Amino acid sequence: MIIPLPHVLLFSLALFGIGAYGVLTRRNIIGILISIELMLNAAGINLIAFSKTTALAPETGQIFAVFVIAIAAMTATVGLAIVLALYRARKTVFADEVNLLKW
Amino acid sequence: MTRPQIAKEKNPVFGTGILQGMWVTMKNFIDSYFKKADQGGIFTIQYPEELCRISENSRNFPFLVYDAAPDSPRCTACGICERECPTKCIHVEMAKDTAGKPLRKPAVFEIDYGLCMNCGMCEDVCPFDSIFMDRVYEIAGRDRTKDMLIGKDALLKPNAYFQKIRPKDAADIDARRKAAEAKKAAAARPATPPDAGGTAS
Amino acid sequence: MNPAMSFLDSIFVNLKLWTLNLIGHFLPGWAVILASIVISGVVILCLGPVIMMYLTLLERKVVGRMQNRYGPNRVGPWGLLQPIADGIKMFTKEDIVPTNADKVIHLLAPIVIVVPALMVFLVVPFGRDMTAADLSIGVLYFIAVSSVTTLPIFMGSWASRNKYSMIGGMRTAAQMISYEVPMTLAVVPVIMMSQSLSTASIVNAQEGLRWFVFTPWGLAGFVIFFICTVAECNRPPFDLPEAESELVAGFHTEYSGMKFALFYMAEYMNAFTLSAIAVTLFLGGWQGPFLPSWVWFFTKTFALIFAMIWFRATFPRFRVDQLMGIAWKLLLPLTLVNMLVAGLWYFIPGITGWVGAAVILAVSFLGLTALNKPVIPEKRVYLLEN
Amino acid sequence: MDILNFGIKVGIYALMAGTLVLAVGVVTLRNLFHSALCLAATLIGTAALYLVFHAEFLAAVQILLYVGAVVTVIIFAIMLTEHIAERSVAQRNRQSLPALLGILVLIAVTGRILLKTPWAVNPATVGARVTVADLGAALMGTYVFPFELVSVILIAALIGAVIVAKKEKSS
């Protein structure tokens, strides 16, 4: 390892925090999806960093990072399909305007 | 509404149409190196080096014909062409000798190629078979008043040139002129022709 | 191989080693490493644009010949200086930015598009030991980097604020994503057989005349890969994103001068690198008898580029539904069958495997074409309302 | 070699900082298209970080799938719904400040835990180079069940996306 592990973890923590902030504050659903991608990415960095330093088998983390990427791709496709359907039905992409099920 | 009948596919095997199309372009590519223009090769003409073959009947701007020497043209400065020209692009002045007596040849003969519309009226009306339509086309100029105004010296071209560019017309005209001259000579054999120098060929 | 040939074969490698030795005499070790990177980088950075310039000339000449014309032949002997004249023209043209354009992205798009186009050169094996960086994931690197090309096209089309650009960008997205799938899957059999992702070892696996294209799965894979290649670099007949007759110029409608030149450059460099990768994967790369390795490589690559130009001169443009149909309904299933066939061919030795593989491929191809009968759209009747 | 090492180290930290700046851009930029582009740049930065950890395969997959596919799909969706996301419309809800505070607390606490934890670095793992073949063997061996599961979910997502986004035929 050329740089210490905690630094990498801090970096991915910051990335995760930024993503979470985006999820909490964005109104646009596509914006929320983008922020979720950031958070998943932070998880991927963590997996890789651990697989390089503390893992028992070096490939474990990479395998799970592959899974994370696959899941992220699915999130994007299904989420965006829902956004498009929503846009077609209600002419909006803002999360707080989709409040039909709100009490 | 009935659906339009689609023509039966000519190629039974999928993909042969594609290959046929590709063969057409490939043949063109190969032919462009090995075949002449009329056999399917390249027919582009490389302009400044080689010029277009112009058909005999092509016409554009008028010029004057002389027989023996440029200072004795067929033109008699009668001014018919000047009068008949629809765009008035011809300007003729008759030459005068030192005594002020008019000679039967032009002193000034100018055609404004910028005005000329290539109608060929001058050629039709000329009674002396002097003015004909030329086919030069590399006459671009930078100034439309100066460069397009063509003077007598540039307009005068020998009969040989006329025979070269329009051999059929030139032969007809020469034959007619010869016949007319012979008739004239036969009629006035005792006397010397008044303008022998001008029209003898 | 006689000594003269081996000298010619490794002339560029030796030149670089000699230069590095010279530098090693004067400078410390880290500078030599740096210089090694810089030399390869500079060669690639020069090679890319030069190849692009002469590809434009080649294309214009060949298309001209196919249309019974000469093509450019005025500037310099045989028009050899024409690309330079074009370059000067591009440099001196006015740079127009639309008023409503997103200025920053409009500027960034043509710059960004050149980066992946140049980066792909890194893994191209130009000859024996002539790969700039023999990455262990070479082929994947190539696929990954070339997939980024969609992004700058999107940037350009969106930032122009022009409906033609927008439609062009949308079409690009659909087309490039669709054709990436069969392209990647067509590579899989090659990776299965050579058991490596590195371009250099893939070429080494095709030693002698055992090029992958001479096997049933290799031929099918090559054809599929090449079709996808043509589609990936938006060349006719897959040039819907920049269809002149429908979309003016597609995503680069609003670009002029040097920015347009950069788009153009990226396109031609992509055409070159994609052909080069096709050669590497299926046509044996630099392998070949008698001639130096790099001569073989460039001969094969330019043969493929010639084929691309040939397509351009021959075929009319696809319709959008046909384009998508070919990618998803014909090429994708065929690549899946091809992977299976490659496995069978590997485990059934001798003539049985060959014939079996060929038969399976032919049958699945015919079956797929039969299933994909061209749809004749219903004739539309527009009733006038009264 | 010291200078080279130092340079690489500085480069890595600069890469991290740049990636974070771009990530901040992703969540703060008003124009969604810009933030999607920032996302692409962030993902490329992360891929470069993967290279630092000698995970070349992951880096390539990251670029191929994220930048090549996911970001493209996102931009596609942005373009299709674009005229809604105009400048005049508020792009952020009213919980900015609480969210910021909460995130800062989260980062502070977790960061402290991170720094305090004695990480058991496995020297055998640090030295190991994972090749693509190793990954393939692991995927087809130890992890074959999750692998198959992911492929099933992928198919489900594919079909689901098509069904959800399909335009219903007007009767």
Please characterize this protein's 3D structure.
Chain B contains seven helices and six strands. With 201 residues, chain B is α+β, with helices and mostly antiparallel strands. Chain B folds into two domains: 16-53, no CATH class; 62-179, Alpha-Beta Plaits (2-Layer Sandwich). Chain C is built from 15 helices and no strands. In chain D, α1 runs antiparallel to α2 (32-52) and α2 (32-52) packs antiparallel against α3. Chain B binds chain C through residues 1, 3-4, 6, 14, 18, 21-22, 24-26, 28-29, 31-33, 40-44, 46, and chain C through 62, 65-70, 310-311, 313-315, 366, 369, 376, 378-379, 381.
Notable traits:
heterotetramer; A: 103 residues; mainly alpha; elongated; C: 386 residues
Compose a concise summary of this entry.
Chain A is mainly alpha-helical.
Which percent range describes the beta-strand content of chain A? Answer: under 5%
Name the chain pair whose interface involves the most residues: A-D, 73 and 86 residues
- Total number of beta strands of chain A: 0
User: In sequence order, what are the helices and strands of chain B, one letter per element?
Assistant: HEHEEHEEHEHHH
How far is the first residue's CA from the last residue's CA of chain B? 79 Å
Largest sheet of chain A: none
Secondary structure tally, helices of chain B: 7
- Strand residues, percent of chain B: 15-25%
Give the strand order, joined by hyphens, for the main sheet of chain B: 4-1-6
First and last CA, distance of chain A: 53 Å
Global morphology of chain A: elongated
Choose one word for the global shape of chain B. Answer: elongated
Number of strands of chain B: 6
Radius of gyration of chain B: 27 Å
Low-confidence stretches of chain A: none
What is the level-2 CATH architecture name of chain A? Answer: Orthogonal Bundle
Per DSSP, the total helix count of chain A is 3
